[in-house]
Amino acid sequence: MTSTRSSSTNAKTRSTTRRIEAFRQRFGEGHFWLACHAALPLALTPDLLYSLWANFQRDTHGEAIEIPWIAVADLMLSNLCKEVGNELYEMDKAVRDDLLSQLQNDSRFGLERIRELADFVMAYVEQQLDNPDLDVQDLAQGQQWRALTYKNPSEAAHSIAIVLAQLALDDKAEWIRMAALVNSLEEPLSAFQSLLNYSGAMADLARGNLAAATAQMTQAVDVNYEVRIEGINLTIPDVLNGTLPKSQESEGLPTLSRNRLRLPIAIAGGTIASVLIFIGIQYRLRSPDSRQTPDVASSATPSSQGSPSASPTLGPSMARKRLKTREQPATNAPSVPGVSPSIPSNTPSSSSPNLKQSLPVNVELSVPYLSQRDNVYVNFRASQSTSLAMALSYYGVKPKTPGVQLEDELYQKYQEFGDISDWEATEAVAKTYGFEAVMGLNRTLEQVKQQLASGRPVLAAMSTTRSGSVVCLIGYTESGLIANDPWGNPLTGYTNTDGSRVLLTNEFLNKVFFIESSSSGWAMFITRMNSTDSQSSSLRE
């Protein structure tokens, strides 16, 4: 029997390894590292995965990981994930464990990145813990506990024990649900075997399997025949109390391996995320205050309260909150002190099944702001060269000469190719730094947003001064485009000389950007010359 179980485990491990390696070879390193980061949450929604993409584009040393935007859709549609509800996805436990292990063991990430991910997930779901929809609460609580087990296992065990201590002994459905959740945390809670055994025993008891429940509880109790987890005493049902052996060394009852804790779940696709919701629904449908709904499948992933296309399980509230996980840009670039990305506030809705054609509603890249006003050379006409300097800085380009501003170094480089206001000269200068810069005179708003969603800032010509100006576009919202204007804030007529992260409304853009036609303007798209991004072809019209 042991040999058979071992062979089965080895076969599953090999299968998991092959799936992960096949994904890595097909899509590349950027996709793989996104998958590793996505392995920490209990379940994934498009919104959560976009948020991970936006906030974790760099390793712990500040080096770019270079994850293309399309990796979000590719991962959700790959065989590493399975859809368990409306816009709700989950990885197999074996896949999650393998990916997290690789992330933790890589010198570029390690435990520091695991803790960063845990902080991020806990902040992301924080507001959903008070959501009026109980199903949303359940999944948010599971997400929070899973993240906490990787950051502070002791605190997580204490929190879970408190909930178990308050749970009615006859609430069978809830005990099964909680056991499924605790079982999903088996690896990070490995130091709290008593908690794992206790929850497994209570689930067995709820199913009417007294012998299995007794065996599990035997492993859970301490020398005083109590189950005490981080200062919390857990109740042992009377029906089990009388069956426990008098000595911990008793061999009169069967013992079960830790594999017994892997509960046989065959509900709603057999996944932890669906079980957390499904069993809760079943219980509430039998309760006096049950929400009458005959459709379990549709109830398993409730609609968002705030927006029809918002994330159904984790909700839009935390998605709109800017999370500053570290002072580094969430982009394909090295670190930029003092700035942080915003999380995309929305994602493709269920009415748009083709994820690859959808864009996040909000994007803001952490492009450093540079003012042309302190340039050494002709600062009054250096908007184009200074905007290029912002874009290159975002990609990690630094001055080659110590003590010299990058924008001043670029001015010297421009002298080899033409004037600092010449677009062809800008293309040539960018090329010397290893970037392809392509100017287009009929760039649409959608094309600009596609570049920004792909993690690339855009240089755009604006008629905000008599002679025109160039800004570095760094993001967008439903209301307009976000720009770093090197001369200052154009909305104030440049009376405010701080032009960082200015929201240029759609109405304002109609006046200053759509100068070529009513729907297009001048914009330069920039990418690395050695980029293998599948969207690189969109640089040219």
Automatic annotation (TrEMBL):
**Transmembrane spans:** 263-281
Q: Which residues form a coiled coil?
A: none
Q: Which InterPro entries match?
A: Peptidase_C39-like
Q: Which residues form the Peptidase C39-like domain?
A: 365-487
Biased composition of type Low complexity is found at: 297-312, 334-353
Which keywords are on file for this protein? Membrane, Transmembrane, Transmembrane helix
Residue ranges, annotated region (Disordered): 289-357
| Pfam (any one) | Peptidase_C39_2
Protein name per Swiss-Prot or TrEMBL: C39 family peptidase
- Origin species: Stenomitos frigidus AS-A4
